[in-house]
């Protein structure tokens, strides 16, 4: 991560905190994601340089794994949150409370720390296999949820367009909604990449 990426993460954290149009739940998940990315730039990369001068490899690897797993779990949680927001509609606010989201974010960081610390106790081969399983599971889950999100948005857009075609004066509204839905989808796909 470069200096520019670090600064952009700081700006993103500030913007997310100051934005009032995002729900509290989404803000919390996005902040967790941005903080894990920022941790890579502020802690892990300087440790790589220090490692080149010293041999404190274990500390760097534990921190690297902490932020990698926090990022993977945060992206998966963001995907799950967005799919729940679409599928639960009006029940979303009732079921996905801020306390539950905060508990999920705390769990993400605690589990990431615990998984990272296994590096100290597990044999290298078992640790690599375990890490690969966890990473693959997160990537497959996030991809599956993003695909479901895309298909659901597409279906909703098609349902909106059918009545709107009969009413030409609202055609621009459909286009704006379609662009907004697609922009939202692209933003989530960027998190996966």
UniProtKB/TrEMBL annotation:
Q: Which compartment or compartments is the protein found in?
A: Cell membrane
Keywords on record: Cell membrane, Membrane, Transmembrane, Transmembrane helix
Cross-referenced PROSITE patterns, in alphabetical order?
Answer: G_PROTEIN_RECEP_F1_2
**Gene3D superfamilies named in the record:** Rhodopsin 7-helix transmembrane proteins
Answer whether the UniProt record assigns the keyword Secreted to this protein: no
Q: How does it sit in the membrane?
A: Multi-pass membrane protein
Q: List, for all copies, the residue spans of the domain called G-protein coupled receptors family 1 profile.
A: 8-193
Keyword Transmembrane helix included in the entry's annotation: yes
Q: What is its main location?
A: membrane
The record's section on InterPro entries has: GPCR_Rhodpsn, GPCR_Rhodpsn_7TM
Q: Which domain of life is it from?
A: Eukaryota
List residues traversing the bilayer: 61-80, 101-122, 128-151
Q: What is this protein called?
A: G-protein coupled receptors family 1 profile domain-containing protein
Originating species: Porites evermanni
């Amino acid at each position: 991560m470069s200096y520019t990426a670090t600064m952009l993460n700081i700006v993103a954290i500030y913007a997310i905190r100051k934005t009032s149009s995002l729900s509290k739940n989404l803000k919390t998940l996005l902040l967790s994601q941005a903080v894990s990315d920022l941790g890579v730039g502020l802690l892990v990369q300087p440790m790589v340089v220090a490692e080149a001068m010293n041999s404190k490899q274990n500390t760097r690897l534990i921190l690297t794994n902490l932020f990698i797993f926090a990022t993977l779990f945060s992206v998966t949680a963001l995907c799950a949150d967005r799919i729940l927001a679409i599928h639960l509609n009006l029940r979303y606010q009732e079921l996905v409370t801020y306390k539950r989201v905060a508990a999920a974010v705390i769990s993400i960081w605690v589990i990431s720390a615990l998984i990272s610390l296994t590096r100290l106790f597990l044999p290298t081969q078992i640790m690599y296999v375990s890490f690969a399983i966890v990473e693959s599971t997160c990537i497959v889950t996030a991809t599956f949820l993003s695909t479901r999100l895309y298909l659901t948005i597409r279906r909703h857009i098609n349902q909106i367009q059918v009545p709107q075609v009969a009413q030409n004066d609202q055609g621009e509204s459909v286009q704006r909604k379609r662009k907004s839905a697609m922009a939202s989808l692209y933003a989530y796909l960027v998190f996966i990449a």
